[in-house]
Amino acid sequence: MKKIYLAVAIIFVLNNITLAQCVTANAGPDKTICPGSTTSIGLNTSNNSFTYSWSPTTGLSSPNSAVTNASPSATTTYSLLIKPKNLIVNGNFEQGNTGFGSDYIYNNPAIYGTYFITTNPFSIHGSWCNYAGSTNKIMAVDGATNNGGLRVWFETISVLPNTT
Given this model, what pLDDT does residue 7 score? Predict the structure, then answer.
C-alpha cells in the first residue's frame, strides 16, 4: 500500500492590527497666560497604550506627550489627538522570527509541523505558492502533522485591569 502525505501551507499576513480601545480626550481647562510665560497643559496621567499628538506644535516643549509645557507667542488654541497604539508586536513579520510564539518548530524543512518567515514559500517547498520578487515577509506553515491543537501563532498582550 502506498502512503500519501498531504502538506498544507497556511500563510499569514498580519499588518497594522489595532485593538479597539475607547478613550475620552480631555486636554484640560482653558488657560490664560502673560506673554513670555509658560503653563502646563494636557492630561494628568499618560497611558502607554496610546500615542499623543498636539497641534500646532509651536511653543510646546513635548508635542508628543500627554502633558506638555506651552509658551505661545500669541493667542493659540492647542488640540490633543489621542490614538491607540498597535499592541501586536511584529505583526507583519518584517523583524523576522521575533515578538510572537508558535507551537510549531521554526525553520526546519526536513520535518512536518514547522514554520518559516520568508518572502517566498516556494523557496522552502516546491509545491507552495511562488511569490518570486516579493519583498514582504510572511509566515509560511507546514501543518502536515499528527499533533492536533498546536497554536500556529500567538502573542501575549498585557492588559491593564479595569480598562476598556
Answer: 36
